[in-house]
Amino acid sequence: MMHNVFYLLLQLCLASWTLAAPVADGAMLTTGHGTPPWHYGAGGGIAGFIVLILDLIVFIEVLKSNRPVSNKVLWCLIVFLFPIIGMIIYFLFSNRKAHNTYEPLP
């Protein structure tokens, strides 16, 4: 089950990267201020990198918690679809202390 969720999240991530990539058309061949068109990617700079690291921390914390699988999938989807808002909602409203202990399956 978790493999299917992982593959679904991976496919959604790859699809979002594909949709965010710039398309080279006639309008983008010359930018007017000397910047090559391939420098217009979906990058976020340092702020984007910090959000990525914090989202990965949320994913790891959610997947290691003792929540039911449906709640884990729901939290991962919320954080994946809305990275900044989802992360803030998770840290504010997820009752992290109650689900902090990880109990492995026997």
Could you write a compact summary of the structure shown?
The chain has 106 residues and is mainly α. It is 59% helix and 0% strand.
Question: Features of this protein?
Answer:
106 residues, 59% helix, mainly alpha
Structure explained in plain terms:
With 106 residues, the chain is mostly helical. It contains four helices and no strands. The chain has helices spanning 2-20, 45-64, 69-81, 83-93. Helix 2 packs antiparallel against helix 3 (69-81), helix 2 (45-64) packs across helix 4 and helix 3 packs across helix 4. The mean pLDDT is 74.
Calculate the mean pLDDT score and round it: 74
Count the helices. How many? 4
How many extended strands? 0
Query: What pattern of helices and strands is seen along the backbone?
Result: HHHH
Strand content: under 5%
Task: Please tell me what the overall shape is.
Answer: globular
Largest sheet properties: none
Distance between the termini: 17 Å
Poorly predicted parts: none
Oligomer: single chain
Radius of gyration: 18 Å
Helical residue percent? 55-70%
Overall structural class, as computed from helix and strand content, comes to: mainly alpha
